[in-house]
UniProtKB/TrEMBL annotation:
Domain YchJ-like middle NTF2-like: 38-132
Pfam families: SEC-C, YchJ_M-like
InterPro entries xref list: NTF2-like_dom_sf, SEC_C_motif, YchJ-like_M
Organism domain of life: Bacteria
Native source species: Shewanella livingstonensis
Name recorded for this polypeptide: YchJ family protein
Segment forming the signal sequence: none
Amino acid sequence: MNNNQTLDSKTTHCPCGTSLTYDQCCEPCHSGRAVAETPERLMRSRYSAFVLAHFHYLIKTHHVDYLQGVTEQQLAQGKMQWLGLEVLSSTQLSEYGEVTFKAWFIEDNQLDAIYECSSFIKRDGHWLYTEGQQMQTRLPGRNDACICNSGKKFKQCCAKRLG
Ligand SMILES: [Zn+2]
Ligand SMILES: [Zn+2]
């Protein structure tokens, strides 16, 4: 076990930020009992897979032509402590989709976010991540609402995780 979050899958909200439990939300995708029906669903399940260290799922849902040699072992070396996901927009055509999101994390005691417009294509009935356009985001102010959607101010919430 590493330092990634553990959860009670039947009672805890899914890491991807929906109001559903993990069992009702991303678990069916992770276990292969369901396929992600939209690019946003896939993107959310990929975020949850990062949080829960399901690296095999991340490789499986990344289009092989865009993987650039990334392996499960490399992903497992990440030391990110994930704080929350915010999906800003998602669009879907028949076999192409885009999802813009912010995924906040702490790494080496620094707060940062992946702010990205991700692209997805559908192959044989499965949505796959291809690549993302990274953007810069502003860090929250101490009195701003916390980025983890707790409803608290940043200074009273995730700021306390920083040393
Ligand atoms: Zn979820
Ligand atoms: Zn927080």
